[in-house]
Write a structure and sequence with these properties.
binds aspartic acid; 2 domains; 13 strands; 4-stranded antiparallel beta sheet; alpha+beta; Glutamine Phosphoribosylpyrophosphate, subunit 1, domain 1; about 30% helix; about 325 residues
Length: about 325
């Protein structure tokens, strides 16, 4: 929050004309409207996205590699001691244990993820190691911790951060188990980016739902739910109550809608509409999506007001309020 910069309200619904039904092919539909994208562009969820984008942008300039950029960006958030939903300082499960989920993906289909992992400061880098050093996509729990040790990741002490301990002690007074995510209690970082040559990558990392059942895994490490990237089309990422996002394969859905000709904004709105239709108690549930297409056009949409995201381009790194299905 200390890094909070300029707020700008902006509707991301472009003035572009989309002709439904005319174009089954993504490229031909884009050819029929004016495309207003720019590259490179990096998007990430919530206001911690601003410093994360800054690190990602610096890494992109340094190595020219969009995968390095999205890894470096969210590593910033994984270290942010003020953040209660990402990294080892995040809020624990109902047993008082912090477990982390993360995923990473590039537009050529390479991907890796870890879930329900303990004592690892940078689960995003562990997810990258799964992608690059194993024949697998996902490694969880004790297996993920063992793999981390083999890969030389240091094991951190298993103690709650002072802030997380305070919140957990407060929660224990009633121990109410309500798997809901409202406007205040979520903060996962999902980041997607495209470089100047059109190569895409994304990353997503979280300590998940506060006071979850031990072993619960959300959308963030599930390829297609919390994150999906395809160089032929674009990328999407999600934040919010993971169960609702998994049910609609949220990020994959958005990429497939873009493949069929929707703009990133239209695709995010359709995903939210579907999530709202399929969820009970929607008034207590927040979820938000971000998308980029291969032209560098962007979209964002949430269930409720309150979702914001950071957008970095050559002209700056701005915190933007997303539009939402339910209006303020
Ligand atoms: N999506 C995350 C989860 O369900 C939570 C969040 O975005 O805050 O684990």
């Amino acid at each position: 929050m200390s890094q909070r910069r300029k707020f700008i309200k902006q509707s991301l619904v472009g003035s572009a004309i989309f002709l439904p039904g005319v174009a089954s092919a993504y490229t031909s539909s884009a050819a029929q409207r004016s495309v207003a994208g720019e590259k490179p562009v990096i998007l990430s969820t919530w206001n911690h996205g601003v410093p994360a984008n800054a690190d990602a942008w610096a890494k992109l300039n340094e190595t020219g590699n969009i995968l390095d950029a999205v890894e470096a960006g969210v590593r910033n958030t994984e270290l942010d001691l003020t953040n209660l939903s990402v990294g080892l300082q995040g809020l624990p499960d109902r047993e008082g244990i912090t477990t982390l989920d993360a995923s990473i993906m590039t537009g050529d289909g390479a991907c890796g993820s870890v879930a329900f992992v303990r004592q690892i400061k940078h689960p995003i880098s562990l997810a990258r190691a799964v992608m690059e050093k194993t024949p697998h996509v996902m490694i969880v729990g004790e297996g993920a911790r063992q793999f981390a040790i083999e890969q030389g990741f240091p094991l951190e002490k298993e103690v709650l951060s002072p802030n997380a301990q305070k919140e957990y002690d407060k929660w224990k007074e009633k121990s109410e188990y309500k798997p809901i995510i409202n406007i205040e209690n979520h903060d996962t970082i999902g980041m997607i980016g495209i470089d100047a040559n059109g190569k895409l990558a994304g990353s997503c990392t979280t300590s998940g739902l506060a006071y979850k059942m031990h072993g619960r895994v959300g959308d963030s490490p599930i390829i297609g739910a919390g994150l999906y990237v395809d160089d032929e089309v674009g990328a999407a990422t999600a934040t919010g109550l993971g169960e609702t996002i998994i049910r609609i394969c949220g990020s994959f859905l958005i990429v497939e809608l873009m493949r069929q000709g929707r703009t990133p904004q239209e695709a995010c709105e359709e995903a939210v509409r579907r999530l709202v239709t399929k969820s009970k108690n929607i008034k207590d549930i927040q979820a938000g999506f971000l998308a980029i297409n291969k032209y560098g056009e962007t979209g964002a949409y949430a269930v409720h007001p309150g979702f914001n995201f950071a957008k970095a381009t050559a002209s700056g790194n701005l915190l933007i309020d997303s539009n939402s299905h339910f209006k303020p």
